[in-house]
Design goal:
- By secondary structure, the protein is of the alpha/beta class.
- Helices cover about 30% and strands about 25% of the residues.
- Strand 2, helix 1 and strand 3 form a beta-alpha-beta unit.
- Helix 2 runs parallel beside helix 3.
- The N terminus is likely disordered.
Length: about 200
Amino acid sequence: MTHKGFGLGAITIGVFAASLAISAPAARAEDKLIVFAAASLKDAFDGVNKACEADVGEAATISYAASSALAKQIEGGAPADIFISADLDWMKYLSDRKLTKPDTEVKLLGNQIVLVAPTDSKVEAKIEKGFDLARLIGDGRLAMGDVKAVPAGKYGKAALESLGVWSSVEGKVAQAENVRAALKLVSTGEAGLGIVYA
């Protein structure tokens, strides 16, 4: 696929901020650090965890999922020492319920959402207000995170609304439980395009 960075190489259509907080202490049998992290951070954090294990001799236990799912698990009593959310809404959700230590909440990371296609795709487009995304999708699907719960899905919908194209593609959206699942729909050919993190 060619175009200004379009493909699994990408076009920027939005931004997100990840946030981190230390959860309120949870009783558990072992002292191993438990981290709940947004699924979009898996590749990076697996590498960091491996390096930490080599450096200090012990890795953290990391649980990856959609920020919404992780927040609900923490609310339900799941033990977590650190929560790294893909957006501030789910951090606030836990903070409002007094499930974080406010003095530990930090904006930690940033990222961009992108429109992606399989590497063998011939789709070419210029992303601009009113561009014909529905035509690009054709009879296929647009994969993205759940637009009501998954940060990348919420940001993707907001970006498409801002571009004036959401109403033309809403019925073609295949909503996934997290951004990695959305990317998998594209990489396996189940969706011709997707909105994921860069």
